[in-house]
Amino acid sequence: MRIVIISDAWKPQINGVVRTYELMIPDLERMGHDVHVIGPADFPKRFPMPGYREIELVMFPRTGLAQKIDALKPDSIHIATEGPLGWAARGLCRSRGWAYTTAYHTQFPDYTALRAAKFLPFLYNPVRNFCIYLVRKFHAYSHAVMTTTQSIEDQLRGWAIETPFHRVTRGIDKNIFYPRTHDNAPVANIPNMKTPVALYVGRVAIEKNIRAFLDMHWDGSKIVVGDGPDRPALMRDYPNVHFAGKQVGHDLAAHYRAGDVFVFPSKTDTFGMVLIEAMACGLPIAAYPVPGPMDIVTDDTLGALDDNLEIATHKAMGHGTAEGRYAHVLHHYTWDQAANQFADMQHAAAIKR
């Protein structure tokens, strides 16, 4: 089956959307599928997305997108994002009477509202409500919306989205993410780290609520791994925190292993792949009881959820083992399982010409 994925978020960006498809595609190809991704880099006219400069938005993509899709002759189309490419792909499929699938990867209404409220706080609710309307409209005619968890599906139903959902899990690379108890497991060498070490990994931006983690009282050390627009200000405001910058692959895993507990302060993620990567590296999770963490931290051996992040962090360290968390991830989160679920969704939405 030739599958075309259209995404406003694609390489060289590093985010959850990109990593999901980048890590799932090899398994789809091993299953015999021919997968092509159309992203912003395939178009000449682009501009940086306000507030998220790493993502380039395509200007007037409809004609060029139609040409690229026609050249590929897809058996199915998956629209990954609600940006200009996504809307153009949706319009093209509808005009031709083609079935297509969509995905809800990002809490777009919350992200947009937070950025607007940063300058004009009274805009938060109207901006969020308008964006919910756009999300509802975007997914209205999709054959199925790719989702991650029950709590996200409940949220979307609460927004009056009636399109069928198709759940696709996430996975980890077990050759990279494993506990420091394993032989020769590399651990990042960060000097002067007082234990216990509390770790955050992810984009350093307003929607990740990182200040809640940095303001939390903690007798040990704190590490922030990642980059983003808020990093310079946070480095200035929190000089005692170690900011490790962007890390990938084995270097990222080595930084996970340098921590004793993984703290996830975000309230706006649909899943949080960093959660299962951290657990695979043996760390317990501390987070708020919100979508994403509440679907992943399902018992106290995996971590703790609390409206008080400091309480959650202390509770998380009191239960379970590194090997137990690693085994849990290997059993529940694999890319081959995700690829099978995704392929089933695309088979059901095959284009009928």
From TrEMBL:
Q: Which GO terms describe its molecular function?
A: glycosyltransferase activity
What are the transmembrane regions? none
Query: What SUPFAM superfamilies does its record include?
Result: UDP-Glycosyltransferase/glycogen phosphorylase
Whether Transferase counts among this entry's keywords is yes
Q: Which residues form the Glycosyltransferase subfamily 4-like N-terminal domain?
A: 14-173
Q: Output the Pfam families linked to this UniProt entry.
A: Glyco_trans_1_4, Glyco_transf_4
Keywords in alphabetical order: Transferase
Protein name (database record): Glycosyl transferases group 1 family protein
Tell me the organism.
Micavibrio aeruginosavorus (strain ARL-13)
Specify the taxonomic lineage: Bacteria, Pseudomonadati, Bdellovibrionota, Bdellovibrionia, Bdellovibrionales
